[in-house]
């Protein structure tokens, strides 16, 4: 009997510890790097719900889900590692209702950006302004599910807000071949980045006003090094497009200042900066150290030296050794790369994630 009581008590404390260490909800915002299927429900030219996308995504049996990679996104992996029992459901999916939303919701959209004009080449996409509008709908639903005071506690103490956005504002807006030449003549890089930062400040403050307190914000990666940019600019394997990377670094410096400003001015909030640029650049430059055979060629794609022109689809050539490619398609990392990136965000030091890593943020 004593043994039984001890066992019951041990199990109780174990379960309590698991609940305490588990993440309540993961709210994911951004672009195709973390879209889990929202674009499936839009009439858009940017879609990933076609094979072979998702070929290594175990939860779907290898069927495409709308994720722009062969397996899990960084958002998926981080949620799992932080103790989330289910992936955050896409906001536009029919099952994103009731108690499902207490695990989190994914608002990200392929082609979306900070600025509303970004991604118009795709016809439809959900930009950050609309994604924040959508969260306000979720926020009211959580009030109904938990009651106002518990809902506020759940959102502020047990939820993490992950935002991966900004790359499209350059790739599918300011740097867009032909279509953007007018914008570049009329607007300097400084002025364009000012617009991005000013819009982003408003968007993050809106989330704060809806009780978001734990934020992780990814900066823009080395977009001049993706297979698409290397292919259309006819670069060598070890070259990257200088202008694209220079703009990313310029924006990243301003983003760092913005997050420091928000940490100072929004009481109780913690804004964590994920240094995606340096993380991805490390993988690109030292790919062999991590077990990859290439960081310039897309595993799934067509066109040019690095299979970087035509997005991944049923008629694409596809590599056999998917876990040995840094890039799944002309734009997006493979699941193997996402696993390495996620590990650094979860447990890494200040080089890649500051002032806290994601485990520390969860336990705040």
From TrEMBL:
<protein>
    <recommendedName>
        <fullName>GDSL esterase/lipase</fullName>
    </recommendedName>
</protein>
<keyword id="KW-0378">Hydrolase</keyword>
<keyword id="KW-0732">Signal</keyword>
<dbReference type="InterPro" id="IPR036514">
    <property type="entry name" value="SGNH_hydro_sf"/>
</dbReference>
<keyword id="KW-0442">Lipid degradation</keyword>
<comment type="similarity">
    <text>Belongs to the 'GDSL' lipolytic enzyme family.</text>
</comment>
<dbReference type="InterPro" id="IPR051058">
    <property type="entry name" value="GDSL_Est/Lipase"/>
</dbReference>
<dbReference type="InterPro" id="IPR035669">
    <property type="entry name" value="SGNH_plant_lipase-like"/>
</dbReference>
<dbReference type="InterPro" id="IPR001087">
    <property type="entry name" value="GDSL"/>
</dbReference>
<keyword id="KW-0443">Lipid metabolism</keyword>
<dbReference type="GO" id="GO:0016042">
    <property type="term" value="P:lipid catabolic process"/>
</dbReference>
<feature type="signal peptide">
    <location>
        <begin position="1"/>
        <end position="18"/>
    </location>
</feature>
<dbReference type="GO" id="GO:0016788">
    <property type="term" value="F:hydrolase activity, acting on ester bonds"/>
</dbReference>
<dbReference type="Pfam" id="PF00657">
    <property type="entry name" value="Lipase_GDSL"/>
</dbReference>
């Amino acid at each position: 009997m004593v043994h039984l009581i001890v066992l019951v008590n041990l199990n109780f404390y174990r379960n309590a510890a698991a609940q305490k260490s588990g993440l309540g909800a993961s709210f994911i915002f951004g672009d195709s790097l973390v879209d889990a299927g929202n674009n499936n429900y839009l009439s858009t030219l940017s879609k990933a719900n076609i094979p072979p996308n998702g070929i290594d995504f175990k939860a779907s049996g290898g069927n495409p889900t709308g994720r722009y990679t062969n397996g899990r996104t960084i958002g998926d992996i981080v949620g799992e590692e932080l103790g989330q029992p289910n992936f955050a459901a896409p906001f536009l999916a029919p099952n994103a209702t009731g108690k499902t939303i207490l695990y989190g919701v994914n608002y990200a959209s392929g082609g979306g950006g900070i600025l509303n004009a970004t991604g118009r080449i795709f016809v439809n996409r959900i930009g950050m302004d609309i994604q924040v509008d959508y969260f306000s709908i979720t926020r009211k639903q959580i009030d109904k599910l938990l009651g106002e005071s518990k809902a506020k506690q759940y959102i502020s103490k047990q939820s993490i807000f992950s935002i991966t956005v900004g790359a499209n504002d350059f790739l599918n807006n300011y740097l867009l071949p032909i279509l953007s030449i007018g914008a570049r003549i009329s607007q300097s890089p400084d002025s364009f980045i000012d617009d991005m930062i000013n819009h982003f400040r408003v968007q993050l403050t809106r989330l704060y006003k809806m009780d978001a307190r734990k934020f992780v914000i990814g900066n823009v990666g080395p977009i001049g090094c993706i297979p698409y940019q290397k292919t259309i600019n006819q670069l060598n394997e070890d070259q990257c497009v200088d202008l694209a990377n220079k703009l990313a670094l310029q924006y990243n410096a301003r983003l760092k200042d913005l997050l420091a400003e928000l940490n100072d001015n929004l009481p109780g909030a913690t804004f964590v900066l994920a240094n995606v640029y340096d993380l991805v650049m490390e993988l690109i430059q030292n790919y062999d150290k991590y077990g990859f055979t290439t960081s310039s060629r897309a595993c799934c794609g067509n066109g040019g030296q690095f299979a970087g022109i035509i997005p991944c689809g049923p008629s694409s050539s596809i590599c056999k050794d998917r876990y040995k490619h840094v890039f799944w398609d002309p734009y997006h990392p493979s699941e193997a790369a996402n696993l390495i990136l996620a590990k650094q965000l979860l447990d890494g030091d200040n080089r890649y994630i500051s002032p806290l890593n994601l485990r520390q943020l969860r336990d705040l």
